[in-house]
Amino acid sequence: MIIKTSEGLVDIKSLNLQELTEEIKSLGEPAFRAKQLYEWMHKKLARNYDEMTNIPKSLKEKCKEHFFYACVSQERVQVSQIDGTQKFLFGLHDGNFIESVLMKYKFGNSVCISSQVGCRMGCRFCASTLDGLERGLLPSEMLDQIYAITRISGERVSHVVVMGSGEPMDNYDNVLQFVRLLSDENGLNLSQRNITVSTCGLVPNIRRLADEHLQINLALSLHASNDEKRKKLMPIANTYTLEEVIDACKYYFDQTGRQLTFEYALVGGVNDTEDDAKELSELLGGLNAIVNLIPVNPIKERDFIETERSKVIAFKNKLEKNRINATIRREMGRDIDGACGQLRRRHMLEK
């Protein structure tokens, strides 16, 4: 996938090995140099060409002239005093900012990355969408969030969720290339089964993703048990009905065999009643799926309130009674602007 910047430079870190080999050969260089460059970028996580000790100076100069080299810069990091979660604010080459989160679990280190600068989906409880969409991220910029956190922490990342700022299915081609590069055996070689991509429900692209026959996990931001309530929370519901969204998720399971996850943010007095749990059970009955209940992380720009803990547990119990697998998401980073878009927005307002 050949991606060029507005300046006409090829995005070198978004090329697969075969594409990079062709580009390097077009510069009059031997093919083996491409493998060396690829390893420096995707295994050794070099921040620039100058760190590549076995690359000739003449080739480095050619690369600087012909290629764009994505490398995010750490602008700010917040560390939770509760659970050690780290939230990073990264700067991009064009002056934009994005967020990423490092969460440490017993099973390994999980990184939540952003797929866009901002978001245009308009979900009512999300800070990412308050200022609209600036642009989609390049595959290289998604990768480098992981690479930067790996360099900073000195620890391997075992799981990646594309669930930060932005709607991944609204940046489809770049997200797809990102997944393929991240799972490439010549790079970090992360198992696709350890990669989760979320969506608020762009039905055509859910079906496109299913036809790729990847082994990544799909997480649907559901957040309501009927169309009427979903429209109040998520504008995308005015375009695609719940029936269409659920059918697309079923198609994804049929094509990949991967268990589905339905994200459900519990908003006090809005979607957390016993009737909501009953309706949700009927909606998802028979699916190979799990419901991830998320006590909403309030943002000051909205008047949503968090569901009481006792009601969260009661909601979960009701689902399980109706044979729906459910979990309550462990709240990570609540004391460090944990919700998507909060840190970026605060930083922008301070400027």
What topology, given as strand order, has the largest sheet? 3-4-5-6-9-10-11-12-13-14
Find the count of extended strands (DSSP E, 2+ residues).
14
The low-pLDDT segments are none
Strand content bin: 15-25%
Largest β-sheet summary? 10 strands, mixed
* Mean pLDDT, all residues: 92
Helix and strand pattern = EHHHEEEEEEEHEHEHEHHEHEHEH
The level of helicity is 25-40%
> What is the oligomeric state here?
single chain
For the record, give the distance between the C-alpha atoms at the N and C termini, rounded to a whole number.
36 Å
Q: Structural class, judged by helices and strands?
A: alpha/beta
**What is the helix tally?**
11
Radius of gyration equals 21 Å
**Shape annotation:** elongated
Written overview of the protein:
The chain is built from 11 helices and 14 strands. The chain starts with 9 loop residues before the first strand and ends with a helix. The longest helix has 15 residues, at 139-153. It has a 10-stranded mixed β-sheet. The chain is 34% helix and 20% strand. It has 351 residues and is α/β, with parallel strands linked by helices. β3 and β4 form a beta hairpin.
Features:
single chain; 351 residues; alpha/beta; ten-stranded mixed sheet; elongated
SSE diagram, text form:
Blueprint: E1 10-11, H1 17-26, H2 32-42, H3 57-66, E2 67-68, E3 73-79, E4 86-91, E5 97-105, E6 108-113, E7 116-118, E8 133-136, H4 139-153, E9 159-162, H5 172-182, E10 195-199, H6 203-211, E11 217-221, H7 227-233, H8 242-256, E12 260-266, H9 274-284, E13 289-295, H10 309-321, E14 325-328, H11 342-350
Parallel strand pairs: 1-2, 6-9, 9-10, 10-11, 11-12, 12-13, 13-14
Antiparallel strand pairs: 3-4, 4-5, 5-6, 7-8
Helix pairs in contact: 1-2, 4-5, 6-8, 9-10
